[in-house]
Design brief:
With 259 residues, the protein is an alpha+beta fold. Helix content is 22%, strand content 31%. The protein is built from four helices and twelve strands, in the order ααββββββαβββαβββ. The protein starts with a helix and ends in a 5-residue tail after the last strand.
Length: 259
């Protein structure tokens, strides 16, 4: 019993001191960030002026949002379990926000940054690498689309637009979508979470498909309701992705909630 008590206490202690924070999905992270980029970590140096801050020197690869020179700040709170120091010579997707108190462009563990050259041990998690490297190109393609078209998603964590049945996309298998990989819509929601309008901002290229798809989305889109009503009418973003599956068939899917 003594051994069991010690084990339970240890497990509780580990859990209580574990890093526990809300990591945003990539659309929310992109919307909230002031700088979004992929970059290689050159080095990390101490910032003697401000406690908790380090200088993260980067070699940028692609800048999707904001103005970046060569450095952002890492912030690690004293005694926090969410300490984050990306290894030198690794490549990352970084999200940084401007600290209004000191003007620093800052990143921390809970900013949803993602390592792009992560190593996997397939004997432990055989599908992890496949899943990971399926998401990475999709995310970077999405950010390239947003950057090119100067779009910043409207994101509210209380309002999650979802398709009630993905079977509505079945009839678009092998359809000639034309144009780009993404279609971008704005969804207007009233205080009771009812959808009152759906506006296409950027659509797929096929004119006939665009009209039919817009009708299908409007008739099948819903909002996950929260316990409290909204304070006002709100507009949020909904994005579709056109892709080819492993059988080389064209398909459509949503990217909201992508992590």
């Amino acid at each position: 019993m003594k051994t069991l008590s010690i084990l339970i206490t240890l497990l509780i202690s580990i859990k209580s001191f574990a890093c526990d924070c809300y990591k945003k999905d990539f659309l929310e992270a992109y919307a909230d960030a002031d700088i979004v980029l992929t970059a290689k970590v050159v080095d990390i140096t101490r910032n003697g002026k401000s406690a908790g801050y380090s200088n993260l020197n980067l070699e940028p690869i692609d800048i999707y949002k904001g103005n970046f020179e060569n450095q952002i700040k890492l912030y690690n709170e004293a005694k926090s379990m969410c300490v984050f120091y990306p290894p030198i010579d690794t490549t990352w997707l970084f999200f940084a926000t401007k600290d209004t108190n000191n003007g620093y462009y800052t990143m921390r563990w809970c900013n949803s940054s993602k390592q792009l050259d992560k190593q996997f041990y397939n004997n432990r998690a055989p599908n992890a690498e496949k899943h990971y490297y399926w998401h990475v190109p999709l995310t970077l393609d999405l950010f390239q689309f947003l950057s090119k078209n100067k779009l910043n998603p409207n994101y509210d964590s209380k309002i999650q637009p979802i398709i009630e049945s993905f079977s509505i996309f079945d009839k678009y298998k092998n359809a000639d979508i034309e144009g780009g990989k993404f279609a971008y819509y704005e969804v207007t929601v009233d205080k009771s979470y009812n959808i009152v309008n759906l506006v296409p901002i950027i659509e797929f290229g096929n004119p006939k498909l665009r009209e039919e798809l817009l009708t299908d989305i409007y008739n099948n889109l819903t909002i996950l309701k929260q316990k409290t009503s909204l304070s006002d009418i709100t507009t949020v973003t909904f994005i579709l992705h056109y892709y080819k599956d492993t059988s080389n068939r064209t398909r459509i899917r949503t990217v909201n909630g992508l992590r």
